[in-house]
Amino acid sequence: MRLLWSLVFVLSLKGAVSQTGRNLKSNPKTPIKKGPQPAGDTEPASVDLALPPLDNAVAFHFFNSSLHSDAQQRCSEDMKLYYLKNPLVTCNDGTAAGYYLREAKGSKRWLIFLQGGGFCFSKETCDWRNKTKHHLMSSSEWGQTRKGTGIASTLAEENPHWWNANIVFVPYCSSDFWSGTLSKSRQEDYAFMGSRIIMEVIKDLAPKGIKQSKVVMLAGTSAGGIGVLLNVDRVAKALEHMDADGVQVRGVVDSGWFLDLKPQNPSACVDFLSCSPIDAIKKGQRLWHGLLPDKCRLQFKKNEEWQCFMGYKLHSSLKAPIFVVQWLFDQEQLTLENIRLAVNSVTEKQWSDILNLGRETKNSLHDISAVFAPACISHILIENSNWLEFQVKGVSVARALQCWEKSLQENKAGKAPIRGCPFHLIDSYQWPQCNPTCPALHDITTGQEMSLMQMFQRTELDNERKPGPELKVDAGCLTGMLTSGG
Fold it and tell me: What is the value of pTM for the model shown?
């Protein structure tokens, strides 16, 4: 019961520091600077990050094509749609795949953004997904709505390094974590060609100037982040084969750093509710004819290659530099652990699991050279309209990205690292929502903001504490959490 008394103590401190919290939020430690923006550009509206309804949470994880429709609908007028020249490389339903492009004449920088979304791993799950429209599977849909182009534009326009780059947005219509190579045929009801779509996009960009580029940044969120990890070295090799001399290929992975914490149960893997994510990926890889990086794949035994979908197991085999953006308490990872803070009360066992996720995520990122990891409960960071506000140790993600890119330039030139420009930023807090810049939680039933304190007040604590490690209050978290109102 010590945890209960600790929480009571924390709650008693809330009023004493709430005013300090308001001051911290309104006056962050480090001022945020925005890069130049095109004339007429306006600040995007804020995005509400509510958790999925209880009865559809698992399906939401597998099939949600975007958590941020407001940001996606902020389309840049100069993003032009192109269908792939190769008609054999298609979306799930056999319709043409393609991309949006905003050209910046004379620019030697390219930002290619892979959209996130879900996946299916059998004919039945794909049929269900297609029937219920849980994901855009047809080029006619994304071609008409132009969803998502605003994300790439916003990411570039609000970053001083990328505001005048060539911007490419690639819609996700392959349902395979950008890994598939399977064509649609009489024997196959669906195509899974995510990996080939990326390669065709690179080919189609060759006459548009990508061969003359100095830097190509492959970025993506959630499934798109996994796509970056799986394909960044292949993109670099493709450009090398095009005689693109001197081009530097880099990757930004946002919320694509999943951990295989949930036990597997292959015998029960029938549908979304019974199949663990790992078992679903195993089945999916076979269905998609998934293409994995050779260096990673050869590290594992037969039927264990699925581990290359896990960023922390794949990263060491990559040649291209990677910047990882990851919430320590990823909202989708918590959903996989059957924890939905904005819907259910949380047991003491689940609270222990939440803290364990934070520890395991932090440990998996320890040896990553470039990382931005706030101790917050959320999913996807750079698609947020207020992405510049999030900070770790007083540094924004935009600043960290800038420092990382400068370090790559200095290393290439043989110069010493830049002092006072950090890009390995992992929150030291052990509890979630301690960081005063964390996005607010929302109660899905009321739509109201829900502080972590309010979540604690409805927490179902065990009456009798079972033997195990003591859950101690994170002393460093008290000020951060309470001053943020969290």
Answer: 0.81
Catalytic residue among 330, 364, 407, 427: 330
Q: How many domains does the chain have?
A: 1
166 DSSP assignment:
E
| Listed residue (16, 139, 158, 6) closest to 74, CA to CA | 158
Q: Does the annotation count 330 as an active-site position?
A: yes
Residue 445 is classified by DSSP as: T
Cα–Cα dist 6/474, whole Å: 10
Measured CA to CA, the distance from residue 405 to residue 399 in angstroms comes to 10
Helix (H, G, I), strand (E, B) or coil at 335: helix
Q: Give pLDDT, residue 343.
A: 61
Per the prediction, the chain carries an average pLDDT of: 77
The catalytically annotated residue of 139, 379, 396, 427 is: 379
Active-site residue, from 222, 255, 364, 407: 222
Q: Token digits for 10?
A: 């924390």
Q: CA gyration radius for the chain?
A: 22
pLDDT tens digits, one per residue of 321-355: 999 999 999 999 988 877 877 666 678 888 889 99
Where helices occur in 206-268 by DSSP H, the ranges are 223-241
395 or 37, greater pLDDT: 395
Measured from the Cβ of residue 159, the count of other Cβ atoms closer than 10 Å reads 22
> Which structural domain, as residue segments, surrounds residue 414?
2-483
pLDDT of residue 31 exceeding 50, the answer is no
Higher pLDDT, 135 or 229: 229
Instruction: Give the integer Cα–Cα distance in Å for 170 and 386.
Output: 22
| DSSP classification of residue 52 | P
| Active-site residue, 139 included | no
